[in-house]
Amino acid sequence: MPPPPTELFFGKRQLRTLTVNHRDYIVMKQIGRGGSSKVLQVFDSDMRSLAIKQVYLENTDDATANGYKNEIELLRSLRHSDRVVQLMDFEHRVTDQMLYIVMEKGDTDLTKLLQSYTRLNEVDANMCKFFWGEMLRCVDVIHKENIIHSDLKPSNFLMVAGRLKLIDFGIASQIQSDCTSIIKDSQVGTFNYMSPEAIEAQQVTRNGSSQTAIKISRRSDVWSLGCILYNFVYGITPFGHIKQPMGKLVAIVNREHPIEFPPVADCHLLAVLRGCLRRDPYQRPSIEQLLSDPYLTGCRCQVMSEVSRRRAVCVLSASGAAGALYKPPLDRVRVQWIRPAVRRGPCPWIHSDRPQGGEHRSGLRPAASERCLS
């Protein structure tokens, strides 16, 4: 049996210690809670601020318990990476049916960051591009280790000392070296960020018996990243306007249900959004391709624009692909009217006409440092 928690006092405040593998940690406060677990902020003997996930295994089913054990194994295999939250220690107390996972503690997650910047109206093109690159580098690390996260969403990206890191590998899966996809026995993930193939149940045969399973590849994570980027740009996920859960799932898998892409300032950004949110996973770009995309590398493009009140066309000469003519719902886009600066040469920033009433919502506003390439 582990020693009982020791009570300490900080001024008039009563503190306690928690022992994991014979190491004492001073518990400061609870910083998170799940259905069968809670996360505590603690200090170790060197006064480093860490996090301990405390899991009550007696309250979990087998799938959930296996998910926690899977998370530990994957974190152990990714200890060499600075793009994944670091596993410090863990202990499984069989008699108490408790699992303790000691990890590095982040400053905040991407959800809170986005909410904070949105509240201050500070979401601009540079910020969007920075966090997109950070997310891609995080996912690139696990994909190179043949790991599919399966539950990418803003709250699973943690900011640690100015660097974005991935967390929550409870439902992640590892691909065998001779395979390109895996089959999952249950549907997982968060609706707003789930890929169509993660939702569609397929009937497969194993050992002569038929069962429902889901076959997904690394491109499923690309869809989820596209949904996060879409949220950055437009302030809502692609299907966030559908409130009924079943209706949302049907819309995601329905190829006839269009995804709307209101005009944005950067033509390369629009191309990335369209590419990531293709329902056919084989048509989506890989993480490596996204890292070398002109949206991040800043390669030149030529733009022709025909602007009307609710229509815009962007022609990408670099890829030879032309954007479709569409009518964006102006109430679905985040950023308020910003008067575009006078620029020289072909300009990648596109703005539709200013609506009556003095308000315009046409995608991310260009950062002050952006300049067109002539």
UniProtKB/TrEMBL annotation:
In alphabetical order, the GO MF annotations are: ATP binding; protein serine/threonine kinase activity; protein serine/threonine/tyrosine kinase activity
Q: Where is this region: Disordered?
A: 349-374
Keywords, comma-separated and alphabetical? ATP-binding, Kinase, Nucleotide-binding, Serine/threonine-protein kinase, Transferase
GO CC terms in record: kinetochore; nucleus
| Protein's UniProt keywords contain Secreted | no
InterPro entries from the xrefs? Kinase-like_dom_sf, Mps1_cat, Prot_kinase_dom, Protein_kinase_ATP_BS, Ser/Thr_kinase_AS
Under SUPFAM superfamilies, the record lists:
Protein kinase-like (PK-like)
Q: Which GO terms describe its biological process?
A: meiotic spindle assembly checkpoint signaling; mitotic spindle assembly checkpoint signaling; nuclear chromosome segregation; protein localization to kinetochore
Q: Which residues bind ATP?
A: 53
Question: Ranges of Basic and acidic residues compositional bias?
Answer: 351-362
Q: Which segments constitute the Protein kinase domain?
A: 25-296
Any single Pfam family the record assigns to this protein? Pkinase
Family designation: Belongs to the protein kinase superfamily.
Q: What protein name does the entry list?
A: Dual specificity protein kinase TTK
Q: Which organism is it from?
A: Amphibalanus amphitrite
